[in-house]
Amino acid sequence: MAYVRKNVRALTAGERRRFVNALLTLKRRGEYDEFVRMHIDFYAADGEKGLRTAHMAPSFLPWHRRFLLELERALRRVDSSVTVPYWDWTRDRTTTSVPWTKDLLGGNGRRSDRQVMTGPFAYATGQWTIKEGVTDGRFLTRDLGRSAAPLRLPTRSELQWALDDPVYDAWPWDSTVRKGFRNKLEGWGAGSGSASWKNHNRVHRWVGGAMLGGASVNDPVFWLHHAFLDLQWYRWQRAHRRHRYLPAEPPRASDAQHRRVVARHQKLPPWDETPDQLDDVSRIYRYA
Amino acid sequence: MVVGVGGVAVGAEQQAAAGAARPSRREVARGLLVSAAALALAPVVAASRPVHPAQADGNSFDETYRGRRIRGVLVPVAGRRAADGEWRITIDGRPLHLMRRADGSWLSMVDHYTSYRTPLEATRAAVDEIGPRQRLRDLAPDRLGGGHADGHSGGHAGGHPGGDADMGGRHGVRA
User: Fold this and answer.
1) Residues 6+ positions from A34 with CB-CB distance below 8 Å
2) Domain containing B99 — which CATH number?
3) Where is the secretion signal located (chain A) (predicted)?
4) How far is B48 from chain A (nearest CA, A)?
């Protein structure tokens, strides 16, 4: 029977505690850092050569869906009642709302060095030492709202702008494409500056600190953020029932994107599953 | 272990794809070694020129930005046009890995969700994000020595020696 992923604001005190404890257990066992490394390893940019799976590519959504499932399975081996909650950043928008509470992910980083000082992931607890970070800092960092150059979380209408696009993705299937649900949600815009950070990218930037870098998985909010994005894929599918993951077929040899992206029925590394197989996960979980 | 869960036998074709999808640690390590070699020479060159004022041409930069020494040099790669060399960048002597977007802009390991017009801008932006008293982590020992009990490397790599010979550097830099 399918289990339920809930809005993090709806978790009971007991559910919050069990979710946090399961994360801390994976961290203690060294499993969590494997997830951090995996995300680093699979970050490929589109201005270079090679296959892109996790970012700047159509498989951004199925790759992260599968990545979340992997984490969720690990959590549920620790505690079978746990599922990954989602953070609706169109609704919980301040630096003190959920999930930034002491019983969940803890609060903002302090001003001097952006170190998270509260909650179960604060360094002083001894339970969350950063081992696979971009810098040699051993503590989790955040800069909620980006103090030096403030920005706002994406709005409901910005998210809707992505959801309203009936086409899943479009050629050249990368960070430069201006149409299609996938990149409007992933959020690569033209050039630099505030206009270039939309939805997914903008949230990484709003959280800041660890979430801004290649080792963003070090902040557990990564999972809550990506669960919400995964929910958007489900919502998009429901809104555009005649549309599906694209490309349906691999780009031809004459195409610059040949062997650069994963088509609907191709295996999505590192897993033995295709975007098509990850299209419908209603037998595994559903969102409440 | 991450991949053990989804760990499944994969066909040869898929292994090649998996190889192309992830950076070879060996490749990354080699990049860092070359980088270290190039930088070992750099101080000799740098000593003969002032650190201030900042200098930047199209092929290199060397300046102190917010108290950090940032240096970058475009290193020619055999068999390629000059502009297609590799950027070797350091912040206070530690390598900073850049990646290139299809629109020609640059993003760094520190700042993965925004891109910048030039390697210098991306490097300065990385300095902006690195907290006080923190330094870039030198990934080389891990990458070189397989210092981790690295289960997932063995797992999802599934063995792909040379599988990514044709891929761009991930956190290595290829212009």
Assistant:
1) B1, B2, B3, B151, B152
2) 3.30.1880.10
3) none
4) 30
pLDDT digits (tens, 9 = 90+) for B62-87: 999 999 999 999 998 877 666 677 89
Residue B11 counted as domain residue: no
- B-facing residues of A in 60-119 (CB < 8 A) are 66, 70, 73-74, 112-115
- Cα angle A265, B160, B21 (rounded to 5 degrees) comes to 45
CA B90/CA A252 separation, integer angstroms: 39
In a domain, A94, yes or no: no
pLDDT confidence bin for A1, thresholds 50/70/90 = confident
Report yes or no on B92 lying in a domain: yes
Residue A200 maps to a domain:
yes
pTM: 0.83
In a domain, A122, yes or no: no
Residue B42's domain comprises 23-51+58-143+167-175
**pLDDT: which is higher, A229 or B27:** A229
Q: How is residue A18 written in tokens?
A: 């069990």
Contact state of B6 with A41 under an 8 Å Cβ cutoff: no
Angle (CA) B3-A203-A11 rounded to 5° is: 70
Bridge partners of B62, per DSSP, are B55, B71
Asked, for residue B113, whether it belongs to a domain, the answer is yes
Identify the CATH number of the domain in which residue A173 sits: 1.10.1280.10
Is the CB of residue A48 less than 8 Å away from at least one CB of chain B?
Answer: yes
With CB atoms and an 8 Å threshold, state whether B18 touches A196.
no
Check A213 against B112: CB less than 8 A apart.
yes
Percent of chain A with pLDDT over 90: 96
Residue at B158 is within a domain: no
Question: CA A130 to CA A284: how far, in whole Å?
Answer: 31
A181 in Cβ contact with A163 (< 8 Å) = yes
Paired tokens of B33:
């070694």
When mean pLDDT is compared across A8-12, A129-133, A140-144, B130-134, the lowest value belongs to: B130-134
A59 in contact with chain B, both atoms CB, cutoff 8 A:
no
Query: What's the number of domains chain A is made of?
Result: 1
pLDDT in tens, A172-231: 999 999 999 999 999 998 866 777 799 999 999 999 999 999 999 999 999 999 999 999
Residue A96 lies in a domain: no
Q: Which domain holds residue A155?
A: 3-87+148-282
Instruction: Please tell me the total count of domains within chain B.
Output: 1
End-to-end CA distance of chain A: 15
